[in-house]
Amino acid sequence: MSRLVIRGARLLGADAADLLVEDGVVTEVGSVTAPSDAELLDADGLVALPGLVDLHVHLREPGREDAETIATGSAAAAAGGFTAVFAMANTNPVTDTAEAAERVLDLGRACGLTEVVPVGAVTKGLEGAELAELGLMARSRAKVRVFSDDGHCVHDARIMRRALEYIKPFGGVISQHAQDPRLAGREACCHEGEVSGRLGLPGWPGIAEESVVARDVMLARHTGSRVHVAHVSTAGTVEVIRWAKAQGIDVTAEVTPHHLALTTDLLVGYDPVYKVNPPLRPTEDVEVLRAALADGTIDAVATDHAPHARHDKEHAFVDAAFGMLGLETALSVVSDVMVHGGLLDWADVARVMSTTPARIGGLAHQGRGLAVGAPAHITLVDPDREVTVDAAASRSRSRNNPWHGRTLRGAVEATVYAGRVTHDARNGAGTRRELTNATTSGADL
Amino acid sequence: MTRHLISSADLSRAEVEDILETAASMHDLQRREVKKVPTLRGRTVINFFFEDSTRTRSSFEIAGKWMSADTINLSAKGSSTSKGESLRDTAMTVDAMAVDALVIRHNASGACQQVAQWVRCSVINAGDGTHEHPTQALLDAYTLRTRLGDLDGKHVVIVGDLTHSRVFRSNVITLKTLGAKVTVVAPPTLMPSGIGAWSTADGFATSWDLDPVLDGEGEHGPVDAVMMLRVQRERMSGGFFPTPREYTVGYGLTRDRLDRLVARNDGVLVLHPGPMNRGLEIAPEAADSPQSVVLDQVSAGVAVRMAVLYHLLAGDDTPAPVAATPVTEGAAR
Q1: N or C, where is chain B less crowded by C-beta within 10 Å?
Q2: Ordered per-residue pLDDT tens for chain A, 445 residues
Q3: How far is it, in rounded angstroms, from Cα B176 to Cα B16?
Q4: Where do the structural domains in chain B lie, given as residue ranges?
């Protein structure tokens, strides 16, 4: 039997307690007498959260293993405190079949650093024309529940309606990348406003997101199905979601750390590290997004971790790839902006970064972690340690890190996934060693 | 002055005036039989054009040659894409040839600013996407000053496709730097986003209607110059306005508008950066009128680009080109 004792952690930031973990399950909470064979994890002064769950990452495997692999992405996830990540379908080939989904699942299990949950494409090849095999993906070993054409909007209203209807029997959800392609085309890369006007960059107006979200919440109401809004970026979208929730429509929403903290004016130097889709928005939107996360209108934080090879970013701004890294910095950003900003406490962080995303994604065994009988997915956080982000130190294979050089207050100290320590910032153990030693994972716990 | 010329905002009023004064002496050179000066002998200037251009490229090329720099033209069709070489690699490759200046025309906004961060040589923006075209603004200012004198308080009206115009973006900066009053006119679909806050911050006026501005109604006041911008053919089918005919009626410098303008404003100038769409944004009668300084702009282009090359490349100990003796081809110094 493998035993782990976590000593003196403040559960959800409240009172300190010990946690005994046996064979991947929490068996005792309170004052624990450590069995002689137990591994000890000193958590004095640290906050214990249920393992973080990320509804939105790009791991690039298969297809772009030069930018990221499931192994390097898993390592970055563990370092960021995540015990489950939802891998988006826009790989090559696209995750639009049961076989493709199972392959992602198996590669994730082989790494064993975090639970890698495949997201299925809504349409074949992400082309927006024909439904992918949603049912077969749902029935597969991967048990796909979240479907998304992320990177592309499911812009055809009829396809979106059919997809919403079709996923109802197996409790699926469509995660929509809301971007009307007629209002914000492929070139659109800068929030449409004074900055895009001055810089001469193609504008990406908020209305291109808001109009799709407005349509989709009405489709969700019409079909009685469930829609999730990926990477909400504007105040207008928040208004629509707030209204929809008040009507009882089954809609949930996520916001990225970068949309909670970074603003359009960073584009003034045309540095493609700040090029992301949807684009960074002005301060007024950022403030509304923070408030919406605090009041529950936005349900979850998701990173949209999007690694890119250096040569895909070193183009002219309009030609460079969209996306930025996020897994390793997400908790620090949320801590810095939301907790130290007085908008969330640690119990709220557990809600928006673990419990709720686990529920949205249909992972019953995640988002618990701190109670007797729960699978031991646990993240330990030092709420006050300041970290200065160094892009070169990332576990990710890519370096497109917009946080490089920034100092953030609050850091992940250790991650426990299925009872095993997958990251320990204090003694350097974890990630690398676990990466090679891992044989089986507790993904089914 | 900085090592690069990326944006018109890089230049202070004193620097603009300095360049324009140098340009005036260069302009004198152009009237000599032998136009060449040795000022930039041994220097290499690469004109790297990622986008087609006739007048700007030939203007830079002539400017470099008359300054005795070795000028080389490179062109790359289209933009760099994810399939091709990265912009950084392209820039580093050229920089590795130990050139002194890179004159860049690129179809992507910001490309020159990005390149400037990667290379050791000077970078001169010869037009980047829909962002800026600072030497165009300098040559327009030169042309205006030649006819109007000091631009302080002079009223310049810029009309046309502002959204996609780098000429507008650079001109509004340089004209404000020189103290001019600027009004920009376009239909709402061709006004850049955020123009309200932008114009307030930078102190210029905007209008959706051309006639009240040309007629000097209300606060608009008398007009000293009108700059008509080219309407790109590809914009016409883009839903920015219904038909060319409708555009001309609303925003073209028609013969009737020119007549009213001249009647109200003695000595008013008409500018156009070229190439002109005669009959669309500018009537032939306006383009060929005594008010038109379109060819003066082209002529000023060479002098202004010589002046820019001089200010960026000539060392502090290099004699000003006015004092330099003309050289004949192959003559030893």
Answers
A1: C
A2: 899 999 999 999 999 999 999 999 999 999 999 889 999 999 999 999 999 999 999 999 999 999 999 999 999 999 999 999 999 999 999 999 999 999 999 999 999 999 999 999 999 999 999 999 999 999 999 999 999 999 999 999 999 999 999 999 999 999 999 999 999 999 999 999 999 999 999 999 999 999 999 999 999 999 999 999 999 999 999 999 999 999 999 999 999 999 999 999 999 999 999 999 999 999 999 999 999 999 999 999 999 999 999 999 999 999 999 999 999 999 999 999 999 999 999 999 999 999 999 999 999 999 997 999 999 999 999 999 999 999 999 999 999 999 999 999 999 999 999 999 999 998 764 443 333 333 334 434 4
A3: 11
A4: 8-133+301-332, 134-297
Provide, for chain A, the percentages of residues in helix, strand and coil under a 3-state DSSP scheme, each rounded to the nearest 5.
Answer: 35, 25, 45
3-state helix, strand, coil in chain B (%, to 5): 40, 15, 40
Contact A26, A362 (CB under 8 A): no
Fold matches, B8-133+301-332 and B134-297: yes
Asked if A86 and A57 touch (Cβ cutoff 8 Å), the reply is yes
User: In this predicted complex, what is the ipTM?
Assistant: 0.91
Among the listed residues B51, B9, B194, B130, the one whose alpha carbon sits nearest the alpha carbon of residue A199:
B130
Could you tell me the two tokens for B312?
């960026």
Check CB contact under 8 Å for A318 and B79: yes
A27 is written with which tokens?
């068996």
A203: chain B residues, CB-CB within 8 Å: 193
Q: B8-133+301-332 — its CATH code?
A: 3.40.50.1370
For residue B171, which residues of chain A lie inside 8 Å, CB to CB? none
Residues of A in contact with B129 (CB under 8 A): 200-201, 316, 318
Contacts of residue B318, Cβ cutoff 8 Å, sequence gap at least 6: B39
Q: Which residue of B has its CA nearest to A268?
A: B110
Contact B198, B176 (CB under 8 A): no
Strands (E), chain B: 44-49, 70-75, 101-106, 122-128, 155-159, 181-185, 205-207, 225-228, 269-271
For residue A136, how many other CB atoms are within 10 A of its CB?
15
Residue A159 token pair: 């396809």
3-state secondary structure of A115: strand
Taking CB atoms and an 8 Å limit, are A200 and B130 in contact across chains?
Answer: yes
The answer to whether B86 and B80 are in contact (CB under 8 A) is yes
The gap from C-alpha A182 to its chain's centroid, in whole angstroms, comes to 27
Residues of B taking part in catalysis:
55-56, 83, 105, 133
Instruction: Give CA–CA dist B229/B159, Å, rounded.
Output: 6
DSSP state letters, B254-276: -HHHHHHHHHHSTT-EEE--S--
Say whether domain B134-297 belongs to CATH 3.20.20.70.
no
Cross-chain Cβ contact B129/A200 below 8 Å:
yes
The closest of A323, A441, A418 to A71, measured between CA atoms, is A441
CB B187 within 8 A of CB B241: yes
Which residues are bridge partners to A251 per DSSP? A227
